[in-house]
Amino acid sequence: MAERTTKTEKTPAQLGYRMPAEWEKHSATWLGWPHNETDWPGKLDTIRWVYGEMVRKIEAGEAVRILVNSRAEEKLTRSYLSRAGAQLKRVEFIVHPTNRGWTRDTGPIWITRAAGTRREKSIVHFHFNAWAKYADWQKDRKVPDTAARLLRKKLFDIRLDGKPFVLEGGGIEVNGRGTLLTTEECYLDPVTQVRNPGVGREVFDSVLKESLGVTNVCWLAAGPVGDDTHGHIDDICRFVNPNTLVLIKESNPRDINYRPLSENWERIGSLRLEDGSKPDVIALPMPSPLYFEGERLPASYANFYISNAAVIVPTFNDVNDRIALGILAELVKDRPVVGIHAVDLVLGFGSLHCLTQQEPV
After folding, report:
1. What tens digit of pLDDT does each residue of 278-317 get?
2. CB–CB of 9/17 below 8 Å?
3. How many C-beta neighbours within 10 Å does residue 184 have?
């Protein structure tokens, strides 16, 4: 059964835990099968085929745990995955009703520590509230509890002054050595989509350090227009190794994203890693603007996912697809970099990284 922390218990950091980097070896990737019609209006069937391609690429190197609403939905999911060419022997189905499928934000955030000759892993439960924007999040918030019970892992219930502390996995990015990236737009905006009212930078930094074992929290400004999460870092800036970052860059000064993304580039020059060194920062281009019913979509090549078998990268039928894939292939040498068509996927205001959550070995 899952255990819960109390005020008298030590924090994960005090117990020697840390959040691993995404490129460290996984035992599984978590996904939530898509079922919410409002996320992809008129496109839900198409999205299920995209999931099939994702699972096929990921299960080549690790197990895939898929949340389904019911056994009937499991049967449907098996049918789609089989026809997409996925090997179902690597897939585990977990019946847990969800509101949506954005498992990066709702799924278990894992931390690990050395335990003799092996590595012990536990789950940090930050409390999802649908990005402080939507009313239906109650089922999604329970996913970490289900994961802890299923796998018999310790669950750290993160609260501040007795209140659930809200944070999403897509809002943080770590290098596994002590540095964490996030954005002011997402977690410090006092008006829009406020996750933790009254919580400022100093307290936020403290909670992250205590919960995830990081020592160095770095803040960028904001993300691209159209981001439903209001500034998640995984659309903006990502680590590809402990000291190298890719940062999205809009080259067209007339584009609405030019100014906010330029501010990130102004800040990145003063960013320092946990050891005081400057990271290598590589520019990742932006695709041409994508719209749905007149609304700008948050299409970004930064929303890639590093699985054991491959780095899967969203592509958008754009001239910059090949450039982005080439840049990432030059930076990640230990596994192939492959594109997955995401024009339909991004209608839900998210992409590959938003849908996945890694479970370390």
Report:
1. 999 999 999 999 999 999 999 999 999 999 999 999 999 9
2. no
3. 15
Mean pLDDT (the chain) is 96
Triad 231, 237, 243: Cα angle to 5° = 145
186, 218, 237, 354: the catalytic one is 354
Beta partners for residue 181, in sequence order: 173, 218
Query: Which residues, including other chains, have CB under 8 Å from residue 253's CB and lie 6 or more apart?
Result: none
Report the C-alpha gap between 133 and 230 in whole angstroms.
10
Helix axes 44-58, 71-83, angle to 10 degrees: 70
Q: Is the pLDDT confidence value at 108 over 60?
A: yes
CATH class of the structural domain 26-360: alpha beta
With 50 as the cut, is the pLDDT of residue 349 above it? yes
CA distances to 2, 98, 135, 245, 263 from 248, rounded to whole Å, are 39, 31, 31, 10, 11
How far is Cα 50 from Cα 57, in angstroms, rounded to an integer?
11
Q: What is the average pLDDT across 76-88?
A: 96
The tens digit of pLDDT for each residue in 171-184 reads: 999 999 999 999 99
Give the burial class of 89: count Cβ atoms within 10 A of its Cβ; 0-12 exposed, 13-18 middle, 19 or more buried.
exposed
Question: Are 177 and 272 a contacting pair, CB within 8 Å?
Answer: no
Q: Do residues 256 and 225 lie in contact, with contact meaning Cβ atoms separated by under 8 Å? A: yes
φ, ψ for residue 19, nearest 5 deg: -90, 120
CA nearest 79: which of 59, 49, 37? 49
Residue 3 has pLDDT above 80, yes or no: no
Neighbouring residues of 326: CB distance < 8 A, sequence distance ≥ 6 = none
Per DSSP bridges, beta strands 163-164 and 305-306 are unpaired
Helices first, then strands: H and E counts in the chain: 10, 20
- The verdict on whether 354 is a catalytic residue reads yes
Say how far apart CA 82 and CA 93 lie, in whole Å: 14
How is the chain split among helix, strand and coil, in percent rounded to 5? 30, 25, 45
